[in-house]
Amino acid sequence: MVGAKVLLRSAVRHALGALKNGLALIGFAAVCAGALVALDGDAFRRALPLLSLDALPALVAEGPIAAGAAETPLQREQRFMTEYIAKRYRVSESAVAEYVAAAYRAGAQYSLDPLLILAVVAVESRYNPVAESGVGAKGLMQVMPKFHLEKLADHGGEEALLEPEVNIQVGARILREYQRRFHDTEAALQMYAGAYDEPTAQYAGKVLAEKARLELLRQKARKQQSA
Questions:
Q1: Where does a domain end: 61, 82, 105?
Q2: In this structure, are residues 171 and 117 in contact, taking their beta carbons and an 8 Å threshold?
Q3: How confident is the prediction along the chain (227 residues), in pLDDT tens digits per residue?
Q4: Are 129 and 164 in contact (CB under 8 A)?
Q5: Which domain holds residue 20?
Q6: Whole-angstrom Cα distance, residue 188 to residue 59?
Q7: Looking at residue 97, which CATH number applies to its domain?
Q8: Per the structure, how many domains does the chain have?
Q9: Does this model's pTM top 0.90?
């Protein structure tokens, strides 16, 4: 049932994007109805709040900039990240925009630089949301579910890791906990990779190099704002 819920949430987000561009609520209802076919009776009742009209403003707030609206500095920064990542890793901009927004939300929630989160995603999965390693790590940030079951309980369990939002939230939480434990980002990254004792800190080096590239984009976006 988790997979069906993921499908439903994805359908809602994409239908709302079309809705903001002037397509009617008919399209939104049709996509959601199609997703709901995959749910059984109990799951259907649990999913209904997602379709409540009261929930629409919050969902729309996560979408693209409204036509004619001015781009905020944060939106510009996220756009720069999205365009760069989509081109570098050959992933659709619409998908990357969701991952970038999720990283910024998780960064705000866990007091973590969103660029560090995005750098981990790049190294771990190259932005493949259904990536799975031979040892069982899953999703964008390659979270090992067997070590973090308590963090997954509120999200529906292990299969929820294939949902980008959940994967990024859980991965960011894990990384932040390691930062607090070691008071050092390099050590936290090595621990995240399960290579804490590896003397060259190769994994951390890769992540921090990617973060440095993203930081240049951040500075470019901010310079454009002040120009």
A1: 61
A2: yes
A3: 444 454 445 444 444 444 444 433 344 444 444 544 444 555 444 444 444 434 333 333 344 555 557 889 999 999 999 999 999 999 999 999 999 999 999 999 999 999 999 999 999 999 999 999 999 999 999 999 999 999 999 898 899 999 999 999 999 999 999 999 999 999 999 999 999 999 999 999 999 999 999 999 999 999 987 76
A4: yes
A5: 2-61
A6: 33
A7: 1.10.530.10
A8: 2
A9: no
